[in-house]
């Protein structure tokens, strides 16, 4: 089972591991695109105003451009510790026991505008690049990633649970992947998509999937396993699930 997580714009700073080594990352067939984008980001960082425009950053975020300038020399850390924010707070990687962390490293993968997809244990530097970005040297990211990334994800054995957000799902389609929509239900049984707490619920779901004693092999077995962990989830299509959020969310 592979659980595809969205990345986060915010990244933990620093790291204790050596600089980026593409050959040490999972899914090595993606390395040519990774190298092209990394070089393009470093080159673009030499022109701070152009970087701010391309990355849609404000003047107060010039430090993000400085991070990109140091992509090849900055220290690294595992992807599951690099990404931060609401989803990753709910995932709570620091709170995982050693055996759970080993499972999470194998089962969880992070979609990335720069790296395509990463295993949780892959060591990466801090950087700034969003899925909807267009770099002057490369054009829209979808045109680069789709031909390289889609075959990699389609070839992944077992269930693929796709929790990516829209801009990252657009970088590569995964036919047959299990998708999850977070919904709330009113007193009349009407369901609406949850927006504000969406990331937190997906983070909790990812934590459950990462730590299950056994990997589910079918959608039905996934639903049963998640239900035993206390998360209400329903099947609304062949590969579409709805996760029922608590009352008052939206």
From TrEMBL:
> Under the cellular component aspect of Gene Ontology, which terms does the record hold?
cytosol
| Lineage: superkingdom | Bacteria
Q: What GO terms describe the biological role, i.e. biological process, of this protein?
A: response to hydroperoxide
Pfam families with a match to the protein in the record: H2O2_YaaD (PF03883)
Start and end residues of each stretch annotated as Disordered:
1-20
**Which NCBIfam families does the record cross-reference, listed alphabetically?**
PRK02101.2-1
According to UniProt, the name of this protein is Peroxide stress protein YaaA
Output the lineage of the source organism: Bacteria, Bacillati, Actinomycetota, Actinomycetes, Pseudonocardiales
